Amino acid sequence: MQYVIGVDIGTQSTKALLVDGDGTIIAKHSVGYQPDTPKLLWAEQWPLVWFDAVLECIARCVEQAREQGIEASAIRAVCVSSLYGGSGIPVDNDIKPLHPCLIWMDRRATAQVDQVRESVDLERLYAITGNGVDSYYGFTKMLWLRDNRPDVWAATRYFLPPNAYVIYLLTGEIAVDHSSAGNIGGVYDVGRRDWSDVMLDMLGIPATMMPERLVESTDVVGSLLSQWTARLGLQAGTPIVAGGVDAAVATFAAGATRVGQHVAMIGTSMCWGYINQTVDARNGLISMPHVFNGRRDMYVFGGAITAGASVTWYREQFCQAEVEAARALPHGDPHVLLEEAAARVPAGSEGVMFLPYLMGERSPVWDAKASGAFIGLNLVHTRAHLYRAVLEGVAFALRHNIEAGRKGAQFLDDKLIVVGGAAHSDLWMQIIADVTGYPVYTIEQEVEAAMGAALLAAVGTSLVTDEVARGGWARLVERARPDADRLALYSDRFEVYAGLYPALKPLMHRLQAMPDSTRGR
Fold first, then answer.
1. 334 and 429 share one domain
2. Residue 206 belongs to a domain with what CATH number?
3. Is residue 219 one of the residues assigned to a domain?
4. DSSP alpha helices (H): ranges in 92-206?
5. What angle do CA 258, 259, 261 make, to 5 degrees?
């Protein structure tokens, strides 16, 4: 029997698992951490935090495998996927990090967005890149570094996505997978599957800062250096496979390899995406080559910045009673108590609604100055109402993206697959079914993007065929079917949800501009 290791570097944790050629999980390990948020709407991470977590996760998986009698020689490959690294890591000529990576969540580049909109031919940018202009995109974050950290900019040799940087440390080889390159936006020609010299020149970003070698997500970038063998327990020369952006990799893990299949990944953020072969940036979604058959297929997606993060925020700020009560229970999980209470609240939360814009918002709103809000509060509402409203608000954000996606999709499958931490919640899965109108399926296994990375490793080293990969290893389980009455109720509520942001936008922006705000100090 032969095995592969899949690693996923996430926003709040890194996960790894070792699987056999049938996708059976033999070993797994995770390491948690938090991104740095030194200022309001900033989010960054020093890359060695990720690398240390990757080393620990791989080593622990290999150790667990060894305890089961699996030798290092039986481990065929390692693949590394990662969060969308925004700007990427600016490194010098010695490939040493010069500055923390400005990750996807970071929204500081608002002035650069304005500059691009004023000085660049936007229609040409849309046509070449298949993407729009927002502080979410890595190219605007690069411009922020240029304008605000000139010493870093002057010393930068490359910008490396998180998985590419980790793979460089493991192999000594520099390469960027096409999904990570495309997700930068602005600088990648989606039609040619290459960097765009035209857009780099328009934006004033030297082409030399983009690594020359672009690879497929299933390509072997290089071999494990001997300096890591003792630390990891792997053999020197073990192939390291390129991987890709975690949302696309999780979509691949869920078995989405053909046009029309669509998956929602709901963890810290929410990414809903589908497989297509054409893109139109004017629909307000993000696009990149898919991690499987990426020369042909595109992964087109949109998402909310603070999905699970909204739930975590609400629990930590307002639910100390449930947190304390859970300590005395066998499961120790306050979410169980919160969901039991929220399940007794009627659909629609008796009139209260939540906008999950706690770090601005991505698609289809695209507004770094958008802010979160509870609307419709009155004295009847309890913490349970508000908790349910948070779950419903994220589900409305999901539907908002699905409605935008329908404009460019050839078609969408008649079922929605959900992966990520939200899939643990029966209540949330039912709410999503009732809000979107789709039957909801989840993956039987708990690990998603890491499983997709393992499958990419298996494809890249011919442990499995492309035919097997198209079907995937995932075992899907039906979790919820939409209820007709609740669907009708939520459809009415969705019209209100979609109208709230345009109505509140001027006031949100006015608050952001007030001098007594922390934003103005």
1. yes
2. 3.30.420.40
3. yes
4. 110-119, 122-129, 138-148, 150-155, 162-171, 178-183, 197-203
5. 75
The tokens for 140 are 């605007």
Contacts of 110 (CB under 8 A, 6+ apart): 135, 368, 369
Distances (CA, A) of 136 to 46, 203, 249, 343, 367: 18, 16, 19, 34, 10
- Whether residue 36 is contained in a domain is answered as yes
* 251 is a domain residue: no
Q: How big is the CA angle at 263 (ends 373 and 182), to the nearest 5 degrees?
A: 90
Query: pLDDT per residue over 208-248, tens digit each?
Result: 999 999 999 999 999 999 999 999 999 999 999 999 999 99
Mean pLDDT across the chain? 95
Q: Two tokens at 418?
A: 């959900």
Check residue 518 and give its pLDDT: 52
Q: Which DSSP category does 97 fall into?
A: B
Q: How close are the terminal C-alpha atoms of the chain, in Å? A: 61
For the chain, the residue count is: 521
22 and 168 in a single domain? The answer is: yes
Using the 8-state DSSP alphabet, how is residue 36 labeled?
A: B
> Is 96 contained in some domain?
yes
Whole-structure pTM value: 0.92
Q: What is the pLDDT of residues 46-59, one digit of tens each?
A: 999 999 999 999 99
Domain that holds residue 310: 302-444+478-520
| Judgement on whether residues 53 and 201 belong to the same structural domain of the protein | yes
* Domain identity same for 340 and 240: no
Residues 173-221: tens digit of each pLDDT = 999 999 999 999 999 999 999 999 999 999 999 999 999 999 999 999 9
Q: How far is CA 197 from CA 89, 209, 282, in A?
A: 21, 12, 22
Residue 465 contacts residue 20 (beta carbons within 8 Å): no
Q: How many domains does the chain have?
A: 2
